[in-house]
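debug: dumping io for the single-chain case to check the tokenizer round-trip. Nothing else runs in this session.
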Amino acid sequence: MSATLTFEAARMGARRYWLVRGEQTGGRFTVPDDNPDVSIVGARLRDVDFSRIRFTRFLAHDTLFEGCDFSRTWLPHVLFGATGYGGTRWDEKSWPETVYRDCIFVLTKIPASAHFGNARFERCVFDHAGQRGWRFGGPAQFVDCTFRGRVQNCVFGGTTDGYRTVLGRDRNAFTGNDFTGADLVGNVFQHADLRAQTFRGAPDQTLLDRFDQRVEAVLAAFPARPGDRVWSDVVWWLRERSRQAVEFNGGCAVVSPDGLVPRLPPDISERLFRMLADQDPLC
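debug: decoded output
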């Protein structure tokens, strides 16, 4: 192990935290005392073990994490790619990128409130890492990452949401990601190329083109309609997903039987799914 990390005790109001800079290769990440509140700034960390640490706050800015292990790490308040640190007001002129390359997030506690910011994840693994309600919209980028476990109500964004000037780009890299080990439920891919990702495929998850046309054809031809209120929910959800497919993904959508309409009886979901998927061609 080689380490030239420096830990500077700092305060922001009543909050006490460690300002971390420098480099470390290999070994365990440790703080000087029992305060696991860190802001890592301008650092380079390679093959560092962060596993099982219970951070109270984790902030990263303009930093590289390469080959780091975040397995079973607790991140209740996390800013993966923060605009700044120490409570200073952001000048909104630049937003340095924080890169996570070949990092592992297995059984990591990442909450729905996680702020991804200008973070770029390359060849990272997210395996049962709390993947529920994440909002990837904005500057976060994902390239050749692997997702496993349930991924529910997350938003994946392909555009920079108005940050073009400070980022120097108007598109986020979102390509080559592997969702074959993931159960996808209620997610939104905003302006992301679904054909550039890998999904499980039939019979569990299928990438469909012309989704709006498929939905209207199925709604017109569905042979046995449930009660009026249930059917109203079916119509609303399918047309909402159609709208999103047309607006964000050129009419394409990735669908699964249990992710079509919330709380729909499994037999009806399965029938709707089969009717949608049976209309070729696929994307």
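debug: round-trip ok. The longest strand covers residues 178-185.
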